[in-house]
Hints:
The protein starts with a strand and ends in an 18-residue tail after the last strand. The strands form 6 sheets. A 5-stranded parallel beta sheet has the order 3-2-1-4-5, sandwiched between helices. Strands 7, 8, 11, 12 and 14 form a 5-stranded antiparallel beta sheet that branches. It has 11 helices and 18 strands. β17 and β18 form a beta hairpin. The mean pLDDT is 86. The chain has helices at residues 9-14, 22-32, 42-67, 73-76, 79-82, 90-107, 120-128, 142-168, 184-193, 208-229, 232-248, and strands spanning 2-7, 36-40, 111-112, 175-180, 202-205, 250-253, 263-284, 287-308, 314-316, 321-324, 327-345, 370-376, 380-383, 388-396, 401-403, 409-412, 416-417, 424-425. Helices cover 35% and strands 29% of the residues. α3 runs antiparallel to α6 and α8 (142-168) packs across α9 (184-193). By secondary structure, it is of the alpha/beta class.
Amino acid sequence: MIYRVFLDTNIYDGTAYSFRNDFFQSMREYAAQGNLVLLTNTVIDGEVRAHIRANVKKAIDKFNGAVENRFFALFRTLKEYSSILETQDRQKWVDVCLAEYESLLCDCKVEHISVSGVDVDKILSDYFQKKPPFEEQKPDEFKDAIAVASVVIDIDRTFAALQEETAADSTRDDITYCIVSNDKGFRDAILKNCNTAYLEEVRVFEDLKNFIDYTLMMDRQALFLKAFLLSEYGVDEMEETIKQVIENASIDIDVDFGAFAEEKDIIGIDDITYTPYILGIYEEEGKPLVAKVLLEARCTVKAWYSYTDEDNSFYDKEEGAYLWKAEIEKEGIYQVEFDVVVALEIGDCEAPEEWCVEDSKFDFSDYCIVFNDYLNTPSVIELNEDNLIEEEVVSENEPYMEYEEDGEEQREHAYSVCPDCGSPINRLNDGGNGYCINCKWNH
Length: 443
């Protein structure tokens, strides 16, 4: 799962610019794993920088005023205290704080979303009608209105692009769009203006703690689901899911010498293993409902197929039929690997409080999943020399012989008659010039 996270100015201010606290460190870790992108725009970024300058300068002024207190006169003469009581350069402290802010943005893979395309007419309409974020106590929140509009536009762009990308590659992670603001009007404005088609993928939080708690809850649920799928209570469902994928796909068998399999069948699927990856979890009020799961599947496939050995067959173009035909049947065992993406109903597989990742003996018997749908499956399973483990010939006929109905050999096929003596011509007495070997010398 990937989180696109937009932080309002008040969230940065609320941390007192402690850009290395536990919450920001968690965001850094998610970003390093490729699971989080921090979002900002010119409104929020400019406001945060302005607030840093103003608030840090104010704090340093207070600090300098305090250390200049006349009752510190004695301590200024003492070596161990004199450095503590030195006045500080305001701009130096501002620069340090701004550098830490830049470091946070960089570590969290910041993406600056554009404010171009914002509908000014709509903002003015909301202002006159006192719709969020223009609340009674904050009637002139034009900066917030622009920020909200840019976020709503980015939500549309994000999920429209995701739909196209998922159509081409359904194995990609799902995205949850998160807005963190302690301003209720800001949060309400996002939800009221967001495209309803994408509303299920948007989450709003009033502080960083709630956001991080949410990500931890989702991570824990994903780990629990993965553990369940690998347990004895999940393996049967997953193995049946993988078998069904193979049975529903077209089978492409590569036959030697350019021949093709005329008939084929899967006669066994064994040694199934898989690695599950949780691409997304859909929840409602904190309760998990449906999971999107990628399975990296591996198994052995035993296939039977038959083909015509053209080198030992003779096709008469004039007759439009084989005069003799070498037919071979083989069975092969192949190592097959493929990806499949499925949707699973997980309402009865919610991670309990007593479960922990290290608990390898947890009893999963009270939990279950229900297969919902295939989201992506291979249309063709290829069986060829690259993944062939072993094969054997299980049946082949003698193409030159005709057989009685009881299977007893009768005689070789004759495919012509000698014009001179009238003898049947087959491979044993073919003179090579249209006559039998006894008469060919006369022609």
